[in-house]
Amino acid sequence: MNGAQKRQSVLEGIRAALGAGGADETRKKTVRKRLKSPRANLVPERARKGRAARLELFTGMLEGQGAKVSHASGLGDVPEIVAAYLRGNNLSAEFRTGSDEMLAAIPWDKTPSLTRHRGRGQAGDGVTMSRASTAAAETGTLFLTSGEDNPTTLNFLPDTHMIVIRAGDILGSYEDAWNALRKTFGARALPRTVNLISGPSRTADINQTIVMGAHGPRRLHVIVVG
Amino acid sequence: MAKNKTPENKPHVGLFVTCLVDLIRPSIGFASVKLLQQAGCRVGVPQAQTCCGQPAYNSGDRPDARALALQTLSAFEDFDYVVAPSGSCAGMLKHHYPELLGDDPGTAGRARAFADKVHELVSFLVDIRGVTKVRARHDGAVTYHDSCAGLRELGVKAQPRQLLESVEGLTLQEMEDAEVCCGFGGTFSVKYPAVSNAIVEKKTANIAAGDARCLLAGDLGCLMNMAGKLSREGKDIEVRHVAEVLAGMDDDPAIGEKQS
Amino acid sequence: MKPASRAFKTNARKALANEPLQRALGGIKHGFVANRAKARAALPEFDRLRDEARAVKEHTLAHLDLYLEEYEAKVIEAGGQVHWAPSADDARETILKICRNAGARTVTKGKSMVGEEIAINAHLEAAGIKAVETDLGEYLIQIRGEPPSHIIAPAIHLTMDQVEADFRNIHKDLPPERILDEPGQLVAEARAVLRDGFLAADVGITGANLLIAETGSSVIVTNEGNGDLTQCLPRVHIVIASIEKAVPTLEDANTILRVLARSATGQECSTYTTYSTGPKRPGDPDGPEEFHVVLLDNGRTEMLGGEFHDMLRCIRCGACMNHCPVYGAVGGHAYGWVYPGPMGAVLTPSLIGIDEAGHLPNASTFCGRCEAVCPMRIPLPKLMRHWRMREYEEGNTPAGYKLGLKLWAFAARRPKLYHALTGLGAPLLARFGKRRGRFRSLPLAGGWTRHRDLPAPQGKTFQQLWRAREKTP
Question: Which long-range contacts (CB under 8 A, 24 or more apart) does B30-34 make?
Answer without folding.
Answer: B30/B247, B30/B249, B30/C462, B30/C465, B31/B85, B31/B241, B31/B243, B31/B244, B31/B246, B31/B247, B31/B249, B32/B83, B32/B85, B32/B121, B32/B243, B32/B247, B34/B247, B34/B249
